[in-house]
């Protein structure tokens, strides 16, 4: 089942950064989602929402070219998935770094720049190489952009979860991608840090003209910054602006069962009655899966 | 044994004058070779060990070291050099570890060591380790004429290193260091941040296998000075100490090499002028360096506060 609601808020400038045409994903004979359509323009912020185990992370993997579609098509910056190299930045879902890891945040960000190149992991002193000076300037610039300058020289294991997440966003941004894919970057952060990191991503998206696709568990921290949402349900999907998709009517049609979206006095959305898809115990969210079917922030 | 006699003579000759002491020590050709071999081994073990500590692969290193013991004792039993036995067994074991699913410290998502050594795997490795140690013991027992055999193989010895052995150690070290230099940056990336590295096209599995081979060779070398049981003295302690002292990769790797060289040279000197074994000295000096580094980092904020107050 598919619902596509034309986006009204922003018109894509030039070629779409990311296009999904009736994309369908099947894993081990089970259809995770189907009929996903999306046109993502420059500097647009999209959230991928849906219940646990519905295949939100798999959508990012398909965009990265790590997992082939069952049918449909994905085009990134005019090319098939997996061919855009540094033009796509990716931040996978993760736990935090080991507290004893004695490597500076700066080095982690620097690995984002050239970590995939062969050679000795230590740059020549900057004064002997213009290229190295440029790299160093870019690393400092991107660390400044995410506001991590104060702790970038500390061992990353000693940084807080929010600090680590900012440094990892800097790492994903260091090669100036045009499309940034984030897999639950707010996961495991406390509420003030969720709000701060969400604001940071929203700001970078606008100021740097970067398109963002973010898998989210809870839409509320990012709701103010979103242009589009892709709401995945077992077998189907709905795409559009948050106002169009996260409504009782759309979600009821998508799930084929009564779903109610409530708006709290401070503008937060709560989805009540979302059916939980069959449990997949490979998903690491098992422990936190409980609240979603019963009444929980949308996402 | 002649060499042992020479060592005992040297032990009597300690003069507290560094120049005469070094002169005396290096008047024995076996001591010169011990220093040559020790220098090669210290540099190699520190460089490879730096990645071992970063990748949390000390368990793999320990396994490889123990596997070296039956290799060395078996080689001696067959009348070949113990060094060949170390290399053959350690590198073969590295291949096996690389082939085992989830072995060798492969991590969970995100580069943090998540559930790295599942019960079954460590139980399997433990079982095989114990059996191989027992085989090594049997080989030593079968070779009745082997002087001080078990002690030297398990806890290290610096006696009787020949010129050709030094050449072999140096050749292997050059190859390992060259490969390590070539794969260093993606290996560092894969070590601290495996998921991102993989998404960026770094071949993390291939690197992990390649690194285990290098680790096998480095473990085989380190075993030849420190013995199978004390390899961590050169493979882990200098790198761990260096990483405590500095979070800068270039600085901490250099420090690891310096510390490894220092403890090896000091250990060899101390062993030459005393009757106690080299493995004890090298390990003790390396341990001392680690404790000092820890104390220094603990004391630093206290001192800073005292200065500002």
From TrEMBL, chain A:
The keyword Transcription regulation does not apply. The keyword Amino-acid biosynthesis does not apply. Residues 274-299 are annotated as: Disordered. Keywords: ATP-binding, Nucleotide-binding, Transport. Residues 18-259 form the ABC transporter domain. InterPro entries: AAA+_ATPase, ABC_transporter-like_ATP-bd, ABC_transporter-like_CS, Metal_Ion_Import_ABC, P-loop_NTPase. GO terms for molecular function: ATP binding. Residues 278-287 have a biased composition (Basic and acidic residues). It comes from the Bacteria. This is Metal ABC transporter ATP-binding protein. The lineage of its organism: Bacteria, Bacillati, Actinomycetota, Actinomycetes, Kitasatosporales.
UniProtKB/TrEMBL annotation, chain B:
It is a multi-pass membrane protein. The chain crosses the membrane at residues 34-54, 75-100, 130-154, 166-190, 210-237, 249-268, 274-295. InterPro entries: ABC_BtuC-like, ABC_TroCD. Its main location: membrane. Keywords: Cell membrane, Ion transport, Membrane, Transmembrane, Transmembrane helix, Transport, Zinc, Zinc transport. It is found in: Cell membrane. Involved in the high-affinity zinc uptake transport system. Belongs to the ABC-3 integral membrane protein family. This is High-affinity zinc uptake system membrane protein ZnuB. It comes from Streptomyces humicola. The lineage of its organism: Bacteria, Bacillati, Actinomycetota, Actinomycetes, Kitasatosporales.
